[in-house]
Amino acid sequence: MLSIETTQAPAESKLAQKNRILLIEDEDLIREMVVVALEEEGYEIHTANNGRSALSMLQNPDRDHAKLTPDLIILDLMLPEVNGLDICRLLRYQGDITPILVVSAKSSETDRVLGLEVGADDYLTKPFSMRELVARCRALLRRQRYSNSTPSSVQKYRDISLFSQECRVIVRNIEVNLSPKEFRLLELFMSYPRRVWSREQLIEQVWGPDFMGDTKTVDVHIRWLREKLEEEPSQPEYIITVRGFGYRFG
């Protein structure tokens, strides 16, 4: 059941003022309730009720409106004109690393995995409480701020070069586009080569203690990361599965 009850965190209220959120939702009632809940937290909210309008706001501004650069996107999947999966897939293909929180009535494990595979950072099923939605928004924005404040450094391992400050990765002399979670995973792996990480440890380090999903999320992101790093993803040379324990790099 949708609930508009929220609990504001005083320590984050000033930070929230700086955050801009794009809400892409075609159901009027849900859109209006989410806007009220997030505005009460101090966020600046922009809305779109279909996929085409959302892409226009993000990519094709007119002469009267500047391009929108949100800090977070809340994205419904079943949208008219252009669906949410295609929006997510397109943004990631173009190298856009804005955190994306999917909210959808599609609640099966297959739907959740698919949403994460095309680039979503988190997935919330309808119906949901506004308190949980606000908490997930805070968590994604907090992790984004932490990622942006990471000191400048360059890490190299064989054919991979990772530039922390620029959020860039070069593999075999070709730049690859990684989602924020993929980048954080690779950065962690390269910082501790050959260390074995359990799924729970990776969740703690990359998703943080606020994460409310399950450990299968790690497997999804590892598989997608392998597809971008490995010459033969089915026979990985970089990210190795250690059966019964987790994963290691190198």
UniProtKB/TrEMBL annotation:
<dbReference type="GO" id="GO:0032993">
    <property type="term" value="C:protein-DNA complex"/>
</dbReference>
<dbReference type="GO" id="GO:0005829">
    <property type="term" value="C:cytosol"/>
</dbReference>
<dbReference type="GO" id="GO:0006355">
    <property type="term" value="P:regulation of DNA-templated transcription"/>
</dbReference>
<feature type="domain" description="Response regulatory">
    <location>
        <begin position="20"/>
        <end position="141"/>
    </location>
</feature>
<dbReference type="InterPro" id="IPR016032">
    <property type="entry name" value="Sig_transdc_resp-reg_C-effctor"/>
</dbReference>
<dbReference type="InterPro" id="IPR011006">
    <property type="entry name" value="CheY-like_superfamily"/>
</dbReference>
<dbReference type="InterPro" id="IPR001789">
    <property type="entry name" value="Sig_transdc_resp-reg_receiver"/>
</dbReference>
<feature type="domain" description="OmpR/PhoB-type">
    <location>
        <begin position="152"/>
        <end position="250"/>
    </location>
</feature>
<dbReference type="Pfam" id="PF00486">
    <property type="entry name" value="Trans_reg_C"/>
</dbReference>
<dbReference type="GO" id="GO:0000156">
    <property type="term" value="F:phosphorelay response regulator activity"/>
</dbReference>
<protein>
    <submittedName>
        <fullName>Response regulator transcription factor</fullName>
    </submittedName>
</protein>
<keyword id="KW-0902">Two-component regulatory system</keyword>
<feature type="DNA-binding region" description="OmpR/PhoB-type">
    <location>
        <begin position="152"/>
        <end position="250"/>
    </location>
</feature>
<dbReference type="InterPro" id="IPR001867">
    <property type="entry name" value="OmpR/PhoB-type_DNA-bd"/>
</dbReference>
<keyword id="KW-0238">DNA-binding</keyword>
<feature type="modified residue" description="4-aspartylphosphate">
    <location>
        <position position="76"/>
    </location>
</feature>
<dbReference type="InterPro" id="IPR039420">
    <property type="entry name" value="WalR-like"/>
</dbReference>
<dbReference type="GO" id="GO:0000976">
    <property type="term" value="F:transcription cis-regulatory region binding"/>
</dbReference>
<dbReference type="Pfam" id="PF00072">
    <property type="entry name" value="Response_reg"/>
</dbReference>
<keyword id="KW-0597">Phosphoprotein</keyword>
<dbReference type="InterPro" id="IPR036388">
    <property type="entry name" value="WH-like_DNA-bd_sf"/>
</dbReference>
